[in-house]
Amino acid sequence: MQVGSGTLSLGHDLVAALFGRAATQAGGGFWMPVQGSTGAAAVDRIFDLILWIAVFFFVLIVGLMVLFVVRYRRREGREDAEKSASHNTALEITWTVIPILIVIAIFAWGFKAYLDMNVAPANSYEVLVTGQKWKWLFTYANGHVDENLHVPVDVPVRLVMTSEDVIHGFYIPAFRLKRDVVPGRYVRIWFRAVKTGEYQIYCTQYCGTGHSDMWAKVVVHEPGGFERWLQEASDFLKNMPPAEAGERLYRTRGCAQCHTVNGAVGTGPTLSKLFGHQVALEGGKTVVADENYVRESILEPQAKMVLGFQPVMPTFKGHLTDQEITAIIEYLKTLE
Amino acid sequence: MTNSKGESVAEAHGGHLAHHFDTAEQQFESGKLGMWIFLATEILLFGGLFCAYAVYRSSHPEIFLYAHRYLDKTLGAINTAVLICSSFTMAWAVRCAQLGRRKALVRLLAATIALAGCFLGIKYVEYEHKWKEGLLWGKRFHAKLEQPAAPVVASPVPTPSVNPEERSLIAPAAEGPKGLAKPGQRPLWETGTGGPPKNLQTFFAVYFTMTGLHGIHVIAGMVLLTLMLLRARRGEFGPAYFTPVDLAGLYWHLVDLVWIYLFPLLYLIR
Amino acid sequence: MATNDPVFGAGGLGAGQNALGGDNYLSHGHGLKSWLLTLDHKRIGVMYLVSILASFFLGGIFALLIRTKLLTPGSSALMDANTYNQMFTLHGAVMIFLFIIPGIPAALGNFVLPLMLGAKDVAFPRLNLASYYMWVAGALLALLSIATGAVDTGWTFYTPYSTTTNASVITMVAGVFVLGFSSIFTGLNFVVSIHKLRPEGMSWFRMPLFLWGLYGTAIIQIMATPVLGITLLLLIAERALGVGIFDPSLGGDPILFQHFFWFYSHPAVYIMILPAMGVISELVSVFSRKHIFGYTFIALSSIAIAVISFLVWGHHMFVAGQSNLASMIFSALTFMVAIPSAVKVFNWVATMYKGSIWLATPMLYVLSFLFLFGIGGLTGLFLGALAVDVHLHDTYFVVAHFHYVMFGGTVIAFLGGLHYWWPKMFGRMYSELWGRVGALLVFVGFNTTFFTQFVMGSHGAPRRSYHYLPEFQTYHQLSTIGSYLLGMGFLVIAVNLVHALFRGRPAPANPWGGATLEWRTSSPPPHDNFAATPVAGDPYDVEAWAFDRQLGGFVPRAGGSGS
Q1: Distance between CA atoms of residues B31 and B37, nearest Å
Q2: Sequence spans of domains, chain B
Q3: What is the CATH number of the domain that holds C393?
Q4: Is the Cβ pair B138, C244 closer than 8 Å?
Q5: CB within 8 Å: C252 and B205
Q6: Cα–Cα distances in Å, from A229 out to A129, A172, A219, A221?
């Protein structure tokens, strides 16, 4: 059936979009991305239910409206309305009670799934999540800090999250999971990934210039893969030459957000041609950018303010070990 | 609309009836209703601050218990009495306006304003003391306390162990944010060991915003009452028309009422 | 059909119907001072109308710029990230605080409310003028803040970002504070007017539903706005004095700001929609030539919505860090507040049943409203359900939802009301053809702009994003095309209405056959509103009016009570 098949499949797609399942583990649907976790399926079921109810009532209301416009439109011989009642208590009560029952059902189901996603199983693997302008950082049980969230598949993972500065929003669409991270407190969410692969992480609470750049990935490893990755990644300071490790740290620990290495001026001064050169400070002094200067600038950024920049750099005291700072210094020495 | 004498109703009432009202009574009742609604908005304005008070006091009672002792209960009590007196003189003034007793009205309005000034004077003394002692809000808090206070805590920084041999369970997170008592631990103010609680400035932030906003309302009230006084001196008020005095009185009673709540909540904490 | 109706004069038809060229509120007193110092609610309403339409235009320009940038996912030469962030903040702040909150009450309500009450003015005319000048002062402060360092915090000003960012936050927030007074004064005026100035024969349940809508709105304006006031004062104190109430390093709580903020801002959205629903109640009855269906329930639902709206603010904070118990309570109450709105929609459709549906321009807006507000309200169900909201919060789904209810609801109803009362306000009829073209363009443009955003959002696209992932580009491009269509629609509407001011056919007293009291005076009305105070009857007795072809408007039906 050549002629009609185009419209048939469009119609089929439309029906599938409106009435079909929102998404599956295999892939995303019209409305939803792929279901990457056990929680995602639960959320999608409720979404589907609400969708059907909403479409039903929408079709009912707009359908009746269009029907009445056509059937009762004003024309020659029909300048006035027909006689009909201006209220009907039984009808009004019915159409109040039925929606109440429907919304109670939706509420109850939504609440139950919400509780499930808030209460982590006892044996969850814990990862610490830190939000800062404008980067997510993930600290693993052995202390390794990474810019992406690596987890094993089929294991409940508990995220303990906080912010360094302002409120950020941690969001993994594939897991249907979101929580605001607030400075001064820790919040907890959990998930259990069901499919290996990479999934997107966003920041959803506006936090400044780089808000829409706060992207990260969830990397779900097959069994055994996570432990191997963690081992390799944690040892990068041991395995890599210091300058390379420093470059890695520059990229993943929040330096790149504000300091370029190509000479362009960002929120902070460029790091290219920095080490070993003179730096002009606020107040007219100059200083040579040696090891001590770099170390001090990382641990006490406002101690020597570079001329022409705002005092917005956060301190990395407690975030970078001495070894890591040394690696960064080695990296800076290579930037010319 | 005209009455039997052929005068318009507006003229009969000394020209105070606005053209869109039918009767003076309707106009007066409208004014009263309007004023009560305005007072409702004021209650909600202060309500936010009372809410902040409730939130911080319930989450950190030790701060409030400790810090409120820096407030002078005697001065606070005197101020309460001063305001209650001013409400009395105000109510009496309204009565005088209704009875057409011009001289008494003027004197009582003056007395109310004077008492309000007295209130502000005592408040100034209190504020000056706090300023000198550094007992201020937020960033400006720099008081020397009886015993060394714990330093103001920055946002908790997790310090994960970097020694791969150590099995760290990312300790700071597991314990929860600093400042919370652990289960079974006695509250700070009962231990008697540590000095003042951390973050005392929270109390003073609440204290200054609440009394500050109240003080602004007292000043506004004084301006309003001065205007009433000037109009009263010109003989504008009498039995046929005393609405502005009545409404100003309502405002003043609210200002007094807010203080009557502020005083025990800030000064008399137990 | 001749009439001895005292309002229209014993001389019969024509006399007193149209007052252009004669004595009306527009010609009563000349010169700038007579406008700037007026106490006439009608003139104040017109000044408000011009002002808020100017604000809508400004906010719309910001929107078109945003949408143009979003044609491409990466950085754009059109604007950098900082500018983009300022632009979406200003779009929100201008549209919400300068346009939609004053919106229908200030621009239409001020004009119509006393007329509907058969009164000469609102209860406090000087307070009314003061409220307009407060609006102007607030608008000037907002403009000043744009000039001195435009805010980029989002219209929600969340702490700690808003307390630490380098922008003219205090100026903008002070402007909003002053605008809050404008809102409170208007609400206060309306409540007292409705309580005290109702005429003989107009009991509460004989009042037009537009007034019930304005009354519910006024209650919210009075009770909620002061809480915004204190919130903004605390924000200013935090920035200027370092009070520390929202700063975690000083013992404060940033989430407390959110609670305070949403305690006002949620009821605020009902300030936006209740008057709109009131307008729809009027229009659907008049243009179906039929008594409104279910009057009592519609009236009571306005109050129910006003009350319940204060109890649901936490549904903006399901993922912000409030307890599960609080989230549960807020979710349950959120579903409850949906019920009165749904019932109103059923009542309006039932009004159309067996009516005589007249597809004049205002009625096209009613049909648009039912369609668009229907979608907007139903998508609220997704957001009220806790588990689903976790996924959809702060995505484009929410953006689409609130544009469907605020724009597809309030703005559409506002346009309908504007086209309904335009002849009364200015004594001129506009071109029906271009009116319908404008309505259609807006309807099509709106859906194209915003429907795709639902799908983007459910796929995870976060809002307030300068950069976005390329997978969303097609949705964004469709959306931008829609926004240009919308802009064109508004251009058509504006030209049509302004042209009518100068060249429109003189309007009769009652071009649409409404039974409320404003139609019983000339178009435009005289300075004092009525030659003789009309007697109040059933405000939906539209069947008592019949169309007079010669006049081009409605007159009381001969033999009927005519009131």
Answers
A1: 10
A2: 22-49+74-133+208-267
A3: 1.20.210.10
A4: yes
A5: yes
A6: 18, 21, 10, 9
* Residue A76 contacts C, CB cutoff 8 Å: no
Those residues whose C-beta lies under 8 Å from the C-beta of residue C189, and which sit 6 or more positions away, are B34, C122, C123, C124, C127, C128, C131
Residue B47 forms contact with A (CB below 8 Å):
no
Query: So what's the pLDDT on residue B196?
Result: 78
pLDDT higher at B37 or A261: B37
* Window 377-416 of C, Cβ < 8 Å to B: none
Put simply, the chain B residues between 155 and 214 with a CB less than 8 A from any chain A CB are 155-164, 166-170, 173-174, 176-177
For the stretch C287-303, pLDDT in tens is 999 999 999 999 999 99
Number of A–C residue contacts, CB under 8 Å: 267
Mean pLDDT is lowest, of A1-10, B127-136, C98-107, C306-315, for A1-10
Residue C261 lies in domain = 32-556
Chain segment C162-198, per-residue pLDDT in tens: 998 888 999 999 999 999 999 999 999 999 999 999 9
Residue B182 in this model has a pLDDT that exceeds 90: no
| Residue segments in chain C with a per-residue pLDDT below the cut of 50 | 1-4, 6-15, 560-563
Partner B contacted by C127 (CB < 8 A) = yes
Predicted confidence band of residue A231 (pLDDT cuts 50, 70, 90)? confident
What the block records as the tokens of A329 is 């210094």
Asked if residue A268 and residue A205 are part of one domain, the reply reads no
Q: Say which amino acid occupies B216.
A: I
Which residues in C lie closer than 8 A to residue A202 (C-beta atoms)?
460, 462
**Is A130 within 8 Å of B158 when comparing Cβ atoms?**
yes
Whether A215 and A244 share a structural domain: no
CATH number of B22-49+74-133+208-267: 1.20.120.80
- Cβ <8 Å between B19 and C227: no
Place of tokens 């100068």: C502
Rounded percentage of chain A residues whose pLDDT exceeds 70: 92
User: Which of A104, A171, A182 is nearest residue C254 as measured by Cβ atoms?
Assistant: A182
B-C contacts (CB, under 8 Å): 130
Which residue in the block uniquely carries the two structure tokens 């820096």? B70
Same domain, A59 and A36: yes
The first and second tokens of residue C76, run together, are: 């754009």
Annotate B48-88 with DSSP letters as a single string: HHHHHHHHHHHH-HHHHHHHGGGS-HHHHHHHHHHHHHHHH
Give the nearest partner residue to B201 out of C226, C244, C528, using CB atoms: C244
Confidence grade of residue A2 (pLDDT, cut at 50, 70, 90): very low
**Chain C interface test: which of B44, B130, B152 (most C C-beta within 10 Å):** B44
From A234, A259, A280, the end of a domain falls on: A234
From chain C residues 474-513, the ones with a CB under 8 A of any chain B CB are none
d(CA A246, CA C415): 61
Q: Please indicate whether, in this complex, the C-beta atoms of B162 and A143 are within 8 angstroms of each other.
A: yes
Q: Please determine, for residue B150, whether its predicted confidence score (pLDDT) is greater than 90.
A: no
The residue-averaged pLDDT of B28-43 equals 95
- Last residue within a domain, chosen from A209, A234, A259: A234
**Using a CB-CB distance cutoff of 8 angstroms, which residues of chain C are in contact with residue B208?**
243
pLDDT at B167 over 70: no
pLDDT for the residue numbered A16? 61
Decide the pairing of beta strands A168-172 and A149-152. unpaired
Q: Characterise B77 by phi-psi region: left (phi > 0), alpha (psi -120 to 50), beta (else).
A: alpha
Q: Is residue C22 part of a domain?
A: no
How confident is the model at residue B183, as a pLDDT? 44
Q: What is the pTM (predicted TM-score) of this model? A: 0.88
Mean predicted confidence (pLDDT) in A256-284: 87
Q: How far is CA B79 from the centre of its chain?
A: 12
CA distance C178 to chain B (A): 14
State chain B's mean pLDDT as an integer: 80
Structural domain harbouring A20: 10-71+89-118
* DSSP secondary structure letter of residue C166: S
Tell me what pLDDT residue A20 has: 58
